[in-house]
Amino acid sequence: MWQGRVGVLALVVVAILAGIPMCAAGGGGGANQLEVYSWWTGPGEEEGLAAMAQEFQAKNAGVTFVNAAVSGGAGSNAKAILASRLLANDPPDSYQRHAGLELEDDVRSGKVRDLSALYDREGWRDVLPKGLLDNLTIDGKIYAVPVNIHRANLMWYTPATLDKLGLAGPPKTWAEFLEQAEKIKQAGLTALAIGPQWTQKHLFETVLLGELGADKYERLFAGSLDWTAPEVEAALATYQRVLSYSDLRSASGDWQPQIDRVVQGTAVYAVMGDWASGYLEGTKKQRWQQGYAAVASPGSDGVYSFLSDAFTLPTGARNPELAEKWLIECGSTAGQNLFNPKKGSIPARVDADAKLYPGYLGWALGQWRDKRTRIVGSLAHGVVANNAYNAEIDSALGLFNQNGDLPKLAATLESTYEATR
Amino acid sequence: MTPAEGPHGLELIGTTTAHRPRHAQAGVETDWLHQPPAPVSRPSRMRRVPGWLAGLGLMAPSLILIGIFIYGFIGWNVRVSFTSWKGLTPVYDFVGLDNYTALWNDARWRTDARNIVIFTTVFVVGALALGFVMALLLEKGARGEGFYRGVFLFPMAISFIATAIVWRWLLDNGSGADTAGLNQLFSDLGLGFLRSDWHKSDSSWAIAAVALPAGWALSGYVMALFLAGMRAIPNTFRESARIDGASEWQVLWYVMRPALRPVTFSAVLILIHISLKTFDLIYALDQGNLKIDTPSLYMWFTTFDGGFYDRGATIATVLLIGVVLIIGPYIRYWLRSERR
Predict the structure, then answer these.
(1) What's the predicted TM-score (pTM) here?
(2) A387 and B14: CB-CB below 8 Å?
(3) Which residue among B5, B35, B89 places its CB closest to the CB of A109?
(4) B contacts of A255 (beta carbons < 8 Å)
(5) Interatomic CA distance for residues A129 and A349, integer angstroms
(6) At A269, which helix (H) or strand (E)?
(7) Residues 6+ positions from A28 with CB-CB distance below 8 Å
(8) Which residue of A has its CA nearest to B298?
(9) CATH number of the domain that A71 lies in?
(10) Cα–Cα distance between A116 and A421 in angstroms, integer?
(11) C-alpha B219: how far from chain center
(12) ipTM of the complex
């Protein structure tokens, strides 16, 4: 009997203890609290967010900054949890999305507020490049504030490997790449290192951009150029040939080991976004233009294919005034200069202090600010395709890896575009 | 699909579990007070509160919770599978079987269905065979049994995510200077001909390689099940068979095998339903590689990356039906043997 009572009492105590944190979590959100939702938990980005949060709290005394970051899966875990919260109309005060059409669903479902007035008030339209503003605009309005810019269309290599193979320099076009690739293959090396599924999609968009050029690339994703058009089918065929010179069959499990193969010299090139620079400098202790180098991917010189992390103002935010202040911090020169050097990206604003960005970042910043640079958005990172279309492209490319059926790939991409617009 | 109840669901569970022990406590308390004249007071109390009502009262909280959080959400999920809900705006229209026919014509779904059948077959047969052999060896009285039992069971204590990350390296299929993992081990041992592309092979059986980490994680558990089953067979059975002149193989086949049938049956069903639901292992092993894609992964990606809630719910429903078709007979068997 005693044992029974003790057991029951223990259960009650456990249940009450378990209930306390739930009440705290559910009932929280005081008047002076700002909950910011992101997937910035990796090295560099976490410190960058902390630095911005610290400055935000210094400017807004008495405000508690709640960092609701969710780690894992390059943001895909965070996105799944965020979807649940948005569907339950329980949004954080501000949440992270990739700038561009990744936000389209949120906009069409009325989950985020129009920030056009804030842009006018803060004068952001004058300090952000037009190409970026165009890609940020959905149905004529702007709904997100970009903090950083990453570049997607880059080809990474080590100068030493090129010297060893007697290659004069990285290829200027994909046709030249294929010529070099044959030579590299005969030398017993892998021409192009590749990684998990998303890195293949990243390569896919890069080949399309290089083969079609910026205008046709944009028209393709805007729906005014068909996937079954002859020039697009030719570009798809190039993608297939490029893949055949990659290590697709023994693809790395993640993007870091993919880059490692280039550093070790078993592979010559890798197409990757410029977060690779932070990894090469930090983890691999390599120096820009010495241990490693990068150029615009073949056929895309003078084109800047960007992706950007941006913050929003959700419609049901508990504290919209504070959230707006947070967005002002995100869009400010000070905030972007606190965040970007730590994360290894460049500020979206063109008026930030260039001295803070040495090495690769300095080069990227120069290109970003160059008036002649043509800015386009990345596919794999949510700028030019909405979530539904992006997920369907994943399936189509995965199946293409198995069946190698080009006409079918083109037809699927065309029909799913119509179905998901 | 994960129901979108968010923190409210959690709160509800919290508060109701706090209620439940209070009911139970009341019952215990009365018992405690009437303890000394127990034989007299018990029937009189039973007359005041009918037994079925007390039983219902005690069961009510969990019935309500299961009703809402299991069956309610299953029903809701089935409902969503008949809608055209895409994206962050829920739509509760009715499109009939459209989603089911679309799924049937979906090339990725067909690959997934084939994959899950291959994976389940290889994994269940492999884990069962391995578990049985290990149990048999331990049963024969290997020295240091406790140690081996621990060693074999230990992988089950590791989460599938961690297992997958270790095996991602072990199953690396790089060649030449990039050789690593098991292939490296093979070539170091002079067994280079065993080199395999594992789950990245071009064969449509590529997913069978995933049965290696899955079997590694769960064969110890199967071993424990079999070991318990073997220990439950009275030694006299085997003794008498041996006295009758049966060989060890005959003892195994004619005495142990029939006696182990219930254990085998539960092991198979447990393994099958784990296999059908396997998600985290494959997710962490090689994300997005369609060679090892399964229905549960497709469900996750299409729902949360693409916002195809209708298709996700349809996959969940088909998966549920698949599990029920397999678990159903198990429950029937279990109920029948209970009644006996």
Answers:
(1) 0.85
(2) no
(3) B89
(4) none
(5) 8
(6) strand A267-271
(7) none
(8) A395
(9) 3.40.190.10
(10) 24
(11) 13
(12) 0.86
